[in-house]
């Protein structure tokens, strides 16, 4: 199968590398990463050791034939551009799947392409340490939905390539739950400068809990069922307690964060339905002002 991974940084390179064992995979990346992979292959570092894998990696999709599958792994703030760009090369048979954090990717990527659109979420943990090099921290589970032929096909491709993957009948709950976890953990790690485990203790726990319950109220008002959101957030913080959140890593590197697609979307949706979210509104403004202070952004 011909598979294109669009926006291959950390997660996209890891996914593309694993799929390349069974499929004809092309990564679409920025030039430094594409040059490094084209010259020396992708160096994959994990607890199993280091492996160099040779993959096709390009910087543009101009002139490409329609692939069988496109997996979008850009940051959520690039989803709209990604959707516009890939729409130039797809045909009726191309399946398009987004594997990103945040809310709104479904609208930009999956719903936009109708029955060929699939939305996904993953608990994998990957860091790009330099162009051409990634570190796998955890294998994780990847879920796809809504439950239909396209989602089942993508799930099957992932399982046969060695991923732990499933088609979820509750994909919107899964995506919301990840967004709630990100909204409850990530901004607090940025403000405190601490790893994810900080939200398990005061003075951060009460703040994280409030952020969680506010966000969950918005999800529930949208008709999304959640089991025990604070328990889910706590479990994620426990499992990743020594990790630096992606938002803290972004701020430390002077990169734009996904705050607008996580907390910003929660606050925007809350406003639309009249749900008060003072803690999330404050966290949103604090992170935005920290981003602005960094002149590189
Ligand atoms: N890394 C992880 O462990 C996990 C990540 N996620 C989610 O997955 C998504 C991707 O994360 P991650 O891989 O870490 O992010 P990265 O920033 O490492 O990867 C995205 C890459 O896409 C590139 N890109 C964006 N637009 C284009 C384009 N038009 N052409 C070519 N390249 C492009 C970016 O370049 P540039 O930066 O120059 O714009 C960047 O290198 C996010 O939503 C994240 O929250 C979810 C679970 C775990
Ligand atoms: C789950 C968590 C918090 C793990 O670090 C994450 O998704 C992130 O850092 O963005």
TrEMBL record:
Metabolic or biological pathway: Cofactor biosynthesis; coenzyme A biosynthesis
EC nos: 1.1.1.169
Entry annotated with the keyword NAD: no
Gene Ontology biological-process entries: coenzyme A biosynthetic process; pantothenate biosynthetic process
Residues in Ketopantoate reductase C-terminal domain copies: 171-291
The Ketopantoate reductase N-terminal domain, residue ranges: 3-148
Pfam families, per the entry: ApbA (PF02558), ApbA_C (PF08546)
Keywords: Coenzyme A biosynthesis, NADP, Oxidoreductase
One GO cellular component term: cytoplasm
InterPro entries: 6-PGluconate_DH-like_C_sf, 6PGD_dom2, ApbA, KPA_reductase, KPR-Related, KPR_N, NAD(P)-bd_dom_sf
Keyword NADP: yes
A GO MF label: 2-dehydropantoate 2-reductase activity
Family to which this protein belongs: Belongs to the ketopantoate reductase family.
Role of this protein: Catalyzes the NAD(P)H-dependent reduction of ketopantoate into pantoic acid. Catalyzes the NADPH-dependent reduction of ketopantoate into pantoic acid.
Protein's name in the database: 2-dehydropantoate 2-reductase
Protein source organism: Methanomassiliicoccus intestinalis (strain Issoire-Mx1)
